[in-house]
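Quiz preparation item.
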């Protein structure tokens, strides 16, 4: 498999490195397209920090294909602020920055993590807020050619979106207020670890899929290091007519993270 034909998520693979060094490693490995989680230190970074990120992208010669919106203190356990009351201003600030990034780079995919359940408000209140915030973010980013995607994630029991159906239900409930540039991020690793039927999700929701992310399981490693039928899923996506982005969002401590150890993959 030619991994360089995919977008590389630099944040998970090179997250301990400065942006410039992460991009240097990505380009040295042959990648042209990259994506990042929220690459700034705050929801409203100062102009110098944003300028430095954009300059690093420009200097490296890569194409920025995707970026997360501000998701809170992810190192501390946060997984998004879309549904989190009291953090609306942070989300709006990150959307404004994302628009600037989109205008400067052509980046078109922005991942909005939903948020963990908060004990001080009801799930219904959080879900209502998430729809309002999602609509506002998507409308704002549509002016810069952006699409906002929503994903299920694993490993966080109080994160309410665990399957592709869960995500699509949010999109369906919000159909009256959500613009057309909101879609499903199909992360095959998270869905598989959560026990979802990826083949069934592709078949049922092909028209809603706006972005795809790949990692194998177990281990969240490079495709081919685990047991997931990733090639079959990619073939199925092609059959449905999917032509949007596919990103590698895997982790590795190997000197060459793109080499598959045959013993490990068996």
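Solution:
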């Amino acid at each position: 498999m030619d991994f360089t034909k995919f977008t590389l998520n630099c944040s998970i693979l090179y997250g301990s490195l400065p942006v410039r060094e992460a991009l240097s490693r990505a380009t040295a490995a042959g990648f042209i397209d990259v994506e990042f989680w929220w690459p700034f230190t705050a929801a409203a970074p100062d102009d110098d920090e944003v300028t430095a990120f954009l300059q690093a992208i420009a200097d490296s010669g890569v194409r920025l294909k995707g970026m997360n919106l501000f998701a809170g203190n992810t190192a501390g356990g946060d997984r998004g602020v879309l549904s989190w009351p009291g953090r609306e201003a942070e989300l709006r600030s990150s959307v404004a920055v994302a628009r600037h990034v989109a205008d400067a780079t052509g980046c078109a995919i922005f991942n909005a993590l939903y948020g963990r359940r908060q004990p001080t408000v009801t799930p219904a209140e959080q879900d209502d807020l998430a729809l309002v915030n999602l609509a506002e973010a998507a409308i704002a980013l549509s002016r810069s050619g952006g699409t906002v995607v929503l994903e299920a994630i694993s490993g966080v029991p109080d994160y309410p979106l665990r399957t592709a159906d869960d995500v699509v239900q949010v999109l369906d409930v919000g159909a009256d207020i959500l613009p057309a540039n909101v879609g499903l991020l199909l992360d095959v690793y998270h869905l598989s670890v959560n026990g979802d039927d990826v083949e069934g999700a592709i078949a049922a929701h092909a028209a809603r899929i706006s972005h795809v992310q790949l990692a194998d399981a177990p281990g969240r490693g490079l495709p081919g290091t685990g047991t997931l039928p990733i090639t079959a899923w990619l073939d199925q996506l092609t059959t449905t007519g999917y032509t949007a982005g596919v990103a590698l969002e895997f982790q590795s401590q190997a000197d060459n993270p793109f080499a598959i150890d045959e013993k490990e993959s068996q």
